[in-house]
Each structure stands twice: as C-alpha cells, then as structure tokens.
Amino acid sequence: MNRNRNNEKVEPLQQAAVTVPDKKAKLEIEKNRIRRGLYLAGGTLSLALAILGIVLPGLPVTPLALLSAFLFAKSSERLYNWLLNNRVLGPRIKNYQRRKGVTRKGKVGIIAFMTAMVLFSSFVVIHHMPVRILILSLGLIGLIVVWFFVPTAIDDSAPVGEEKDKKEK
Q1: Where are the domains of the chain?
Q2: What's the pLDDT score for residue 17?
C-alpha cells in the first residue's frame, strides 16, 4: 500500500471503464468563443431555412436540418439535444444518423422532386435566359452532389442476408 504526505494509507487507483453513449461521443463543443458563436449563427440560419423549407417547395429540409445539427453539436449541447428531440426535424436527423446516409430509394425521390422543381422554376417561372441557365446548372450540381457525395445507406426493409450478398459481390 502507498502512503500520502500525511503518512496515511492510500488504496491504489483502480482502472474504471466508462461507457459514453454515441450521442455524447460525437458532441465536441468548440472551446473558442468566436468559432462557437459562428457555429451557433450558422446553425440558427440553417435551422431557419430548414423550417422555411417545410412550407416552400424546392428548399431541402433534411440537409439543412443535418447541417444545423452538425453546427449545434459544435456550439451548444442544449440546442443540439433540443433539435434531436424536436418532433418534426428530430426523426429525420436520427434516421440519417442511424442509417449513416440516405437510402437509394430516398435519393431517387430527392432527385425526382428536385428535378421537377428546377424544371418548373426554369421553364414556367423564369423567363430571363441567364437566370434560367444558372438555375439549371445549380440543379445539375445538386443532382451530382446528392447522387455521388451523399452517403448511401442500406434500406431497412432489405433482408439481412441480401445485404451481405450485395457487399460480397
């Protein structure tokens, strides 16, 4: 046994294993106040746009909600937990986190809706050619980003054996 400065017996330190839930492990609050403020402002702006996207067609709700969750995870634990527990946006964020991406079926739906909105905006609403070309170009960039850069998740409805067969091929 060890003894401290007062010559008292001290038990040796024991190893303690602490399990940290996944939500807490991913949460890294920025220590720099300026950066934390910028993350907070960006999270608030993206959350406002996500809420606006609920009523405005063509404004993506889920990507903006995911962005605000990421930014809140760096700036405010309280706002991050509030967003995850929100009854409208929370399930979308949790679903993305659980699956680690968007299913192929979801990507096809996103691209179909986005394409319809871009074509409607370009050919029905906008009559100025340079703006029309800009909207079509941005729509094409959005399509490429969704299809190639957004992680593809495995559909929950697929049988477990089928998932393994796809990975092995």
Answers
A1: 22-99, 101-161
A2: 33
